């Protein structure tokens, strides 16, 4: 039977995958205590070799544990009395953190006969069972990213939870969309103190009213009945009343505003192009189902600004190399040649953006010219690099963790624009979900920075077959 005192001080038993996923998980349980089973240390030791993200995380966990053991106070036996997590330099307030314990002895096998104790997951489960039988005054909770282990824990009577610290939102439906539909009576309630002016060919409005406080910077506003479309440039309090400065958007659905020969096919695509073409917006995120035009829009904006407007020197394209099916094995060649199979979407969109005119030779020459401006790079070699005056496109960003997103975005040097694209409904990375994905993380964290923008694309424009399949299947 699981104890009910979940509000008191608790003891958390950590599974290996939690530490592999987030090395700082050791410091995320506030005043509660942590226990690390011996088999977890064994699995960490087995996973420390290599240059993968998981191996780096394991080595960081090992360093944290070494710091903790070194910080143990003189006269204490850390293996018996535990170590205050607040003792190490990474933690400022000792009183806000509990202790960390290590398993120092074997426990009596309390597992059902159907669960062999030789398996690592079952060994961790047995440790939790033994601690639960020993500690009557607090709840023992097993924390794991492994759903099957949590199910087994609930069956045998151990309280189990997922690791929630990296969860950005409770529900992906709460994710910031990047646009806001104004109500029909908006101008009746917000037109009293409105100011308008023009500056460098752009039209601005200054608006006060109750809805202004709900807007985010670079959020797109629209009112369908009046064909009104604008973007929020600033939000501030003036005379204890929220005031916003908004700018009318360019309509990229109009042929006169085509970008590298293409025009937007719906409202959200037009908003996305406004963000992509804005030199003052350094970071753009595009989220939406397959076929909504994310890659095409980003690539068209990149070519226009790199080749025609000369804002950037080069286009860098990269993506996560996570297979949908079975891995096809070793890929020969240079870094760019190894990435070629993963860049099918890029090549498909280049065909759309390259004028053919039924001239095979002309088409081949155009492709070669465009490829000189576009460089395909692997995520594996990004650490330590700095990109100056580049247009960087990160595709399939839903398969990145928040730490990987930080590593990539911090590569941007002066004059560089970063565009992240992804679909949170198509996550192929183990232990990532819609609410913990890297793209969800950056959309939520960047939504009020004046040099970033986000747009959720909903309407598929690939083909009627693809649209119907997306809805039906």
UniProtKB/TrEMBL annotation:
<comment type="similarity">
    <text>Belongs to the PhoH family.</text>
</comment>
<dbReference type="Pfam" id="PF13638">
    <property type="entry name" value="PIN_4"/>
</dbReference>
<keyword id="KW-0067">ATP-binding</keyword>
<dbReference type="GO" id="GO:0005524">
    <property type="term" value="F:ATP binding"/>
</dbReference>
<protein>
    <submittedName>
        <fullName>PhoH family protein</fullName>
    </submittedName>
</protein>
<feature type="domain" description="PIN">
    <location>
        <begin position="10"/>
        <end position="151"/>
    </location>
</feature>
<dbReference type="InterPro" id="IPR002716">
    <property type="entry name" value="PIN_dom"/>
</dbReference>
<dbReference type="InterPro" id="IPR003714">
    <property type="entry name" value="PhoH"/>
</dbReference>
<dbReference type="InterPro" id="IPR027417">
    <property type="entry name" value="P-loop_NTPase"/>
</dbReference>
<keyword id="KW-0547">Nucleotide-binding</keyword>
<dbReference type="Pfam" id="PF02562">
    <property type="entry name" value="PhoH"/>
</dbReference>
<dbReference type="GO" id="GO:0005829">
    <property type="term" value="C:cytosol"/>
</dbReference>
<dbReference type="InterPro" id="IPR051451">
    <property type="entry name" value="PhoH2-like"/>
</dbReference>
């Amino acid at each position: 039977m699981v104890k009910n005192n979940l509000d008191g001080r608790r003891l958390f038993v950590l599974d290996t995958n939690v530490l592999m996923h987030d090395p700082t998980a050791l410091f995320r349980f506030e005043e509660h205590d942590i226990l690390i089973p011996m088999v977890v240390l064994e699995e960490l030791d087995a996973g420390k070799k290599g240059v993968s993200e998981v191996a780096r995380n394991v080595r960081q966990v090992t360093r944290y544990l070494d710091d903790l053991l070194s910080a143990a106070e003189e006269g204490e036996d850390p293996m018996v009395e535990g170590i205050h997590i607040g003792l190490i330099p990474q933690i400022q307030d000792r009183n806000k953190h509990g202790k960390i314990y290590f398993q120092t002895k074997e426990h009596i096998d309390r597992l059902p006969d159907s669960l062999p104790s030789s398996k690592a997951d079952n060994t961790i489960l047995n440790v939790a069972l033994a601690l639960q039988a020993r500690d009557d005054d607090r709840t023992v909770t097993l924390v794991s990213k492994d759903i099957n282990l949590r199910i087994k824990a609930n069956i045998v009577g151990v309280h189990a939870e997922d690791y929630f610290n990296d969860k950005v939102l409770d529900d992906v439906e709460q994710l910031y969309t990047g646009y806001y539909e104004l109500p029909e009576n908006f101008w009746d309630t917000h037109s009293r103190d409105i100011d308008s002016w023009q500056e460098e060919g752009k039209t601005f409005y200054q608006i006060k009213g109750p809805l202004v406080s709900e807007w985010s910077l670079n959020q797109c506003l629209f009112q369908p009945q009046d064909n009104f479309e604008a973007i929020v440039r600033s939000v501030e309090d003036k005379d204890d009343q929220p005031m916003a400065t908004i700018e009318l958007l360019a309509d990229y659905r109009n042929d006169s505003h085509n970008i590298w020969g293409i025009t937007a096919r719906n409202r959200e695509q037009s908003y996305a192009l406004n963000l992509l073409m804005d030199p003052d917006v350094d970071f753009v995120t595009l989220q939406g189902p397959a076929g909504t035009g994310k890659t095409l829009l980003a690539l068209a904006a990149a070519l226009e600004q790199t080749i025609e407007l000369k804002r950037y020197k080069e286009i860098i394209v990269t993506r996560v190399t996570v297979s949908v099916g079975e891995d096809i094995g070793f890929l020969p060649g240079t870094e760019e040649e190894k990435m070629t199979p993963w860049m099918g979407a890029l090549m498909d969109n280049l065909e759309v953006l390259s004028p053919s005119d039924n001239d095979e030779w002309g088409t081949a020459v155009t492709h070669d010219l465009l490829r000189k401006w576009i460089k395909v790079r692997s995520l594996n070699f990004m650490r330590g690099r700095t990109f100056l005056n580049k247009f960087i496109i990160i595709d399939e960003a839903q398969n990145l963790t928040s730490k990987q997103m930080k590593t990539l975005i911090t590569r941007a040097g002066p004059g560089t624009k970063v565009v992240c694209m992804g679909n949170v409904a198509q996550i192929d990375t183990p232990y990532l979900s819609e609410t913990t994905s890297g793209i969800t993380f950056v959309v939520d964290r960047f939504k009020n920075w004046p040099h970033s923008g986000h747009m959720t694309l909903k309407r598929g424009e690939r083909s009627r077959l693809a649209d119907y399949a997306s809805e039906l299947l």
